Amino acid sequence: MENNNNNSKNIINVGRTAFFLAILIVGAVFLFLNINTVIGFFQKIISILSPIIVGSVMAYIIYPFYNLVFNFLKKHLKTHNKKDKNGNEKKDSDGLAAALAIFASVLVWILIFLGLIVLVIPELYDSLNKFLSNANSYRESLDYIITNLPVESIKTDLRNIFDSLYSSFDNTISNYVLPNISELLPNIYRGVQNVLSMVLNTFIGLIVMIYVLLKKDKIKPSLVRLIYAVFKKDVAEHILDEIRYANTVFTNFFAGKVLDSLIIMIISYTVLSIFKVRYSLLLSVIIGVTNIVPFFGPIIGGVITLLLVSLVTFNEIVATGQGSLLTIAYFGVFVFILQQFDGNILGPKILSDTTGVDSFYVLLATILFGGLFGFVGMIIAVPLWAVLSRLIDEFLVSRLKQKKLPIDVNDYK
After folding, report:
1. Cα–Cα distances in angstroms (integers) from residue 366 to residues 363, 370, 371, 382, in the given order
2. Residue 82's beta-bridge partner residues?
3. Rounded Cα–Cα distance for residues 250 and 393 (Å)
4. Tens digits of per-residue pLDDT, 327-380?
């Protein structure tokens, strides 16, 4: 009788497993066949919720600063204890400290935005405008350099390459851009619309950030309660532990990376200004911003800035007879030394290897998440990989323990 019951239970379990597996397969096939519709749906949801997402990200980024200011004010403001509706003592200074900390956080973001608008953007616009206005002279400069090369074969090869590039550019302008200018106008309009939408989302995000910081003491317990309500207690505790780990990794990584890139930008601008290199702010901003991207960022920034300096130097040589090709060499050496200093001294000192991700996996994660999520994916690649690899490792360890196998990877050499 007992064997029959066990057999019945086994049949039920097998049937239940097969049923859920069938649902999973059908769902996977449905998603595959309608992948564009599914992606479009989620993109629409993200677009609608973008102000909320922007505000939440802004609150997450500024929270360490907010917490620092709040604790400082809470400690130094005069306090008068009073009882809340539950009879618990509450300090009057807490509310004032929170309000002032939020005001300081908003002020920091406003100063950052104003700094971009007032200081960086006009300089970038002026630099790019001058750069583009001298495009023809850059072409003449390249022609002059190629003409005066000592080796005839190299001269011919370079001439053919640049003639081909010029021809392709001219054909693109003549055969595509000019005839289709009426079709390009809607794209330009959408671009302007996207910029205005981004500005509006940022403004709304600032308001959302204020509410998130104000309600953080209610939002966090609500999320924790939700997790405990949905999952078993041990599973919920494990999830919360993983969330805390992810928060630590992301916070430490981004705080360290932003500080690292800011220091590199300041060093670059200081050195380039001392040696009176043209477009020093533009070059420093490119070096600093691209430095945020792991592995590829410094390479991209170095190549772009070296190309800009080369074109400007060629133009000065041809147009005024001043300048020297050594400027390009000096700049290349400076960028190389700066990257070595950052990669081997400054970066490790600031980040302190907070993610623990091997250099090979940094490369792999940057390529993978960059391909999936673009520039944002490249920025979040390293901490996201650290979190995912920890989850995978915990799963593997758990499975190996169940099978009573060694968990150390060295045991499998």
Report:
1. 5, 6, 8, 7
2. 90
3. 19
4. 888 898 999 999 888 877 887 777 656 666 777 777 788 888 877 777 777 888
pTM comes to: 0.65
Closest CA to 381 of 300, 294, 301, 298: 294
- Within 10 angstroms of residue 177's Cβ, the number of other Cβ atoms is 10
23 — pLDDT class (breaks 50, 70, 90): confident
Task: For residue 403, give both structure tokens.
Answer: 């099978």
Main-chain dihedrals φ then ψ at residue 199, nearest 5 degrees: -65, -45
pLDDT at 56: 86
CB-CB contact of 141 with 315 (8 Å): yes
State phi, psi for 176 to the nearest 5 degrees.
-120, -55
- Spell 352-373 as b/e; 16+ CB within 10 A means b: eebbebeeebbeebbebbbeee
How many CB atoms neighbour CB 243 within 10 A? Answer: 14
Residue ranges per domain, the chain? Answer: 1-33, 43-80+89-160+185-214
Residue 395: half-sphere exposure toward Cβ, Cα within 13 Å = 6
Q: What is the dihedral of CA 329, 335, 341, 342, to 10 degrees?
A: -170
Residue with tokens 């391909």: 371
Collect all residues with Cβ–Cβ distance below 8 Å to 54 and sequence separation of at least 6: 201, 202, 204, 205, 208
Alpha-carbon span 260 to 271, nearest angstrom:
17
- Rounded Cα distance between 354 and 337, Å, is 24
> 296-320 and 280-290 are packed helices; what angle lies between their axes, rounded to 10 degrees?
160
Give whichever of 28-32, 117-121, 348-352 has the largest mean pLDDT: 28-32
